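note to self — DONT lose this again. spent like an hour looking for the file last time. sequence + predicted structure for the chain T wanted, 75 res
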Amino acid sequence: MPLPKNVRPEGAAQGKAEGSAKSGRKPWIKKTPEQVVLEQADKLRAEIAEAEEELKAKRKRLEKFEQAKKLFEAT
């Protein structure tokens, strides 16, 4: 027979607290609004840099296809 929802086995609350301490997770530190904004700006810069790299690669591919197109049109 299942236990009612409001009844917990002994040590369940303690095990949860001890488990998170043993798991090696860093404690949560509240950030200031300034830190949050600066972190978001850094993430956005990284995303933009990644997108620019992808765009450069796609432009190179397009240039190769255009050169191939010129070859086909010449023949």
